[in-house]
Protein: AcrR family transcriptional regulator
Organism: Rhizobium lentis
Amino acid sequence: MSRSNRERTEQTRQALVYAGRRIFVEKGYAETATPEIVAAAGVTRGALYHHFEDKKALFQAVIACEAQAVAKAIDAASAPEHGARAALIAGASAYFAAMAQPGRTRLLLMEAPAVLGSPAVAALDAENAEASLRDGLAAFLPEAGALLDPLTSLLSAAFDRAAIAIEAGGERRDYERAIAALLDGLADHLRR
């Protein structure tokens, strides 16, 4: 039974994304050349440009896949039936676990803003991990009201800084405890 054109097209696209990810992690965006990517993917240069306008478009697809994987890990771990606080804490732990995937912190938090620009990365984050965080905060802090969006943005930045610190050798457990303390402090303050 032969594969459909659609299946072949998707397989080629995925091969390019996987090869691109590996090489972007290994060398960084600036040092990665498209001939390396097509060779690693086992496809032609024409196939690359059939699927992606240029190296930046491929990089953006890699970043989108990484962001979706992080959001999926958070959503899978943060079951609300255990309570809003427990869901947020579980989501925080899942975020740090997902960011521990080799190269992910570099790709999402260092390379992506430099290559794609902060607005594009913020929009991608708003659809993925930050969206999960916002939903969790809304459930945990219904009294946040107009502060929900700024709190989400600030806590999202705190998560990202923590992921960078953990990548550099910081104790993940300490950052998880710090996030819990921040959440509890916010709840105490808003509920007064």
Residues 83 and 140 are 8 Å apart (CA to CA). DSSP finds ten helices and no strands in the chain. The first helix runs from residue 5 to 27.
